[in-house]
Every structure is written in structure tokens, then in C-alpha cells.
Write a structure and sequence with these properties.
homodimer, 316 residues, six-stranded mixed sheet, four-stranded mixed sheet, 12 strands, 31% helix
């Protein structure tokens, strides 16, 4: 297949998953056209998924497609915004029709789960990687930043952390189980959880209503905790034993290189019950792991000395 | 420098070029936040610039940065939309601070020329490539598609075509001339024109007011001509000698693989004077090269037999 035929294949597979009436012109022209609700602001984020870094080499296409969508959507959710539209640029070293078709299937499945839709993209020959731009909407002035935590705020995290390193240690061959089977296992199996990060769109209202600051966890919990107070001179105190870990996960790895794409947020004390209610009603596990300090101290209790690195993953 | 330091370096270099009051939160958070004018629709396009394909290998960073912006902006202009915002994802194999700083300079210069601004991005380690998402605005319902030409419409093209292949034939070493010097030469020098494609934002009003269909030329003129009528059963007749070529450029190459990023449009006969006036007032050369036919014939006069391929560049 040539480039045009492959693009048609992808678009056929994607179908109309997640489309809404605001999308006036979808993929296929020089650009997509979207009408925008005047009371909404637009939230825009770009991520890259690298073969061998963000996904294991030779990962089946549908798993890469799903993971790519989940990774990019988590940035939008962390702003308290509803994911709406994606553009996806796939670079791949050969016209591997089966892999590309599976990739499109995984993207479609992720879009269905995130209630978002692909409005454009690019296909080119080169080393395999995927660049995604995600566009979300949030009521005017209500986007939640990541560095605006206030002293005494509670610090919360969704889900469980540490699946990545456990999965990479135990994953020797690709499971014959397909995407839909793996999706059923994400609450019990580290490999499934690593490959298919959570899509927390049901948590958007909680972020917008309750959070004083919020980010997704893509570079280690320690780095993300520091982000929460990077706009101020505040610090934090975290109870290490309250950090929700997968069995056998190592805390230091979780602090320095976890990319679980769970949501980390702070909220005022008086919203504690509200956060718990949102978590319960949206069936999303949540843990209260500490609080924001008015000083710049960064304290982990009880094992502070174990944890000195908070720099997070660096590509360089 | 690590990843965070490199990102700061890039943001420092970019400065506030092209920013507008609608940008509420710029680069640095999980996502950018943009307020949108209710009477405007949003136009979104994603492009990838591959090292060794869209730019020669070892191309200086500032030239790659400028070219990347120009490439992505041309899709927005071709919709009759004003370029507003870009996200840029750079993947590079090492933390080459000088190259990255120069790249940011070139992006800034392109943004200044296009009156657009970078609102977010990504930096990762890998084979060098750049993915850009461009977002533009167009009054509601006025976006120009690329396949809606009508019979008897004039076919126009801006600028001159064919610089790419001529440049690649003659370019043996990198000119010591910098970006600003090269920019002054784009109307006379094929290498300068190839490296620094036109940013036709001054032509947006003409596209929106006059065009029945429009696209930019990124995959050969023949392929793009076919796009103009791909939504219908119409064809075209093009006078080959009216196609504006660089001296020594070969017509067949221009038809099959030109990526000059010039603007190709159709317009009704009765708008001919209006198009010419817009071109003159915006100081953009324009050529009337043919017309749309009510039949599906695709005719080049006088040398039709020379030109049979209209498939355009395919990555695969």
C-alpha cells in the first residue's frame, strides 16, 4: 500500500468514534475545522510516544495505539478539561499494514474510552514514533494549573503506582491476549496496567471542582510532587506508606521514574469529603498521601533518607 | 543540560513572539489554555519534518526551525485561516545545545513572520524529527476546502515552483550565510527558497474571499491539482507554459514531487480581478495556469504526453 491507501485504511478503522457536532471538517483536508463553544476555553497538549522508550519495542499496534491515546488524554484531564480532539502523527519504518491497522484499532478503542476523536494526522516513513496533540475544553477560567497548591491542602493520587517497572521486569514475551482481554485486567495485572494506562475522564469534574493544583504522573511521583509547589515557596509532607503501590513495587522507583499516568492533585481540607464522593461515584480509587506545607521542606515519612532524588526522568 | 534545562533554554529563546491576549496559559504546564472567539472556527493541522527527508541531514538548527514553521503554517493558510498557535515536538538524538538553541531561534523567526506563537511542545531523545500542530482561526463557515472547485473556475498558483530539486542538486555545502541573510534571497536563490518556504499569511484574505478550493503544494503540483477536483467528477486543463517555474526547473519533477508550499487555488471567473488585486496589494506573485473542466479530463497543454504521473510523493 502507498501512503494515500494507508491513510484511507487508518481512517476506515477509526470510523466516527467520539465525533461530536462541533467537528465541521474531519480528517482528509489540509486541516480539520472545529466550531468552539464561546463559554469554553481550549486546552492543548502535545506528547510523543517513542518506540523502545514509552512502549517496548515490537509492541503490538493496538496496544501502542491505546497507550498513546491514554498518555495524551491524561494531560488534558489533569487540567480539569474534557478531552475532545486528537491529531496523531505516525512515523513508521515500513508499510506494515497489519501493524498499522492494529494501531488504528487501538487508537479507536482509546478514543471510545476517552470520548475523544481523531481530527487529523500525518503518516511518514521513518523510525517508529507517534506524536499526539490533544485538545480539550474547560469552562472559561476554570482550568487547573499544576503549581498552584496552597499550604495545608490535601495531596491525593488516583489508582496505584509502580506498574511500569514491575511490568518491564516480568514481561518476557507478548501475551497472546488481545487489547479487550488486557483491558479487563488493568486492576489486577501490572503488565495490563502498564500497557494500558488509565483514562480518567470520569474524574474531570472532581479535578475542576475540588483541585487547587493538579498534574498527571509521567516522570516519577517525586518530580510531580515538586511541580505542585514549583510556583511558590511551599513544600509537602508525604506519608510514604499511604502512597498506593502495586505489590512489590519499589518506592524509590515510583518516586523517580513512574509513568503511571495517574492523577495527582491537591485540594483544600474542606473539600475532602467532596473528593471522596467524586472518587466513589466515578469508581476511581483515590489515596490521601500527604499535605502541602507552608515551608519549602519536602518530607517523606517515615523513610525520608531513602528518598532524596526528586528529579524525575530526563531524556538527556 | 538535562531535559528541563533544555526546555527552559528553548522557551527563553522563543520569548513572546506572536503571543496574543487569547493565550491564557502558555508553555510550561500540562497543557496550554486558549480563549476562543465565538465567531471564529478553529482550524487544526499536524505535520512532521523528518531529518534527511523534509530537510537535508545536518541542516543548521535555525533553518530547520524556520522551515518547520513555514511548512505547518501553509496548511492553515490554504484553509483561508489565520495561523495562531503551534505546538512543536522535537526529538533529537543528543542534547546538542547549540543546535537546539539555533532551532528555537529559527522557530521564533518563523513565528514572527507568520504572526503565530508556540503554546506547547515536547522534547525527547530519539532520531531527529519534529512534529508540529498548527491551529488557526477562520470566521464561522468560511473555511476553504481543497476539493470543491467548480467548472470554469480559474486555477491559480502563488510564487515559483521547482526550487526543491534544483536546490538539492546544487547544494553541496552549507552556506555560511545565516537565516536572516538567506531570507533576503528567497526571491532569487533556489537554495534560500527551498530552505525557507514562503509564509503566505498576507494571502489569507484572498483565499477566504475568492477561492472556491485551495491547498498548499507539498506533494507535487500534479497531485495537488487532482485534489482540487477529488470531491467531484470534474477535471482541469493546465497550460504548462503558464506554470511559474524557477529557471532550469523540470516540469515533470514539479508535477510529481514539488514541496514548495506555495498556494494553489481555484476561483470563479468573475473574481479574476479581485485575485489579481489581492496579489498585487500583498506583493505576492501569482499565475493563472488553467481552468477547471466540467469533464473528468486532466489535460496539460501543449505537452500532455510528457506528463502522465499525477500521483505525488508517497512515503511508502
Amino acid at each position: 500500500m502507498n501512503e494515500v491507501e494507508l491513510i484511507h485504511l487508518i481512517l476506515d478503522r477509526l470510523g466516527t468514534a467520539g465525533r461530536d457536532a462541533q467537528l465541521k471538517i474531519g480528517p482528509g483536508d489540509d486541516a480539520a475545522v472545529v466550531a468552539w463553544e464561546p463559554e469554553q476555553e481550549m486546552v492543548v497538549s502535545t506528547d510523543v510516544c517513542l518506540d523502545g522508550v514509552h512502549v517496548p519495542r515490537d509492541c503490538p499496534g493496538d496496544l501502542v495505539g491505546y497507550r498513546t491515546v491514554a498518555m495524551s488524554v491524561s494531560d488534558i484531564v489533569a487540567m480539569g478539561a474534557v478531552p475532545r480532539y486528537l491529531t496523531i502523527a505516525l512515523t513508521i519504518d515500513q508499510a506494515d499494514v497489519d501493524w498499522i491497522a492494529a494501531f488504528a484499532d487501538g487508537v479507536r478503542d482509546g478514543c471510545t474510552d476517552a470520548n475523544t476523536t481523531v481530527i487529523g494526522g500525518n503518516l511518514a516513513k521513518g523510525v517508529k514514533q507517534i506524536a499526539v496533540t490533544a485538545i480539550g475544553s474547560v469552562p472559561r477560567g476554570q482550568a487547573i494549573l499544576r503549581n498552584t497548591a496552597e499550604p495545608e491542602d490535601d495531596i491525593w493520587v488516583t489508582g496505584k503506582l509502580g506498574a511500569t517497572s514491575l511490568a518491564l521486569q516480568t514481561m518476557t514475551t507478548w501475551s497472546p491476549r488481545g487489547l479487550s482481554d488486557l483491558k479487563r485486567l488493568t486492576s489486577t495485572d501490572v503488565i495490563a496496567r502498564y500497557l494500558l494506562p488509565p483514562i480518567r475522564t470520569r474524574f474531570v469534574d472532581c479535578v475542576r471542582e475540588c483541585a487547587s493544583a493538579c498534574t498527571d504522573i509521567s516522570d516519577g511521583l517525586g518530580f510531580e510532587l515538586t511541580q505542585l509547589v514549583s510556583g511558590s515557596s511551599y513544600g509537602y509532607r508525604v506519608e510514604s506508606r499511604e502512597i498506593p503501590l502495586w505489590p512489590s513495587a519499589e518506592l524509590e522507583e515510583v518516586l523517580t521514574q513512574d509513568d503511571s499516568y495517574e492523577i495527582l492533585l491537591t485540594s483544600a481540607n474542606d473539600k475532602r469529603e467532596m473528593v471522596l464522593n467524586y472518587a466513589q461515584s466515578s469508581d476511581i480509587p483515590i489515596s490521601l498521601i500527604g499535605k502541602v506545607l507552608s515551608t519549602s521542606d519536602r518530607i517523606f515519612i517515615p523513610d525520608h533518607d531513602v528518598i532524596s532524588r526528586t528529579t524525575g526522568y530526563s531524556h538527556f
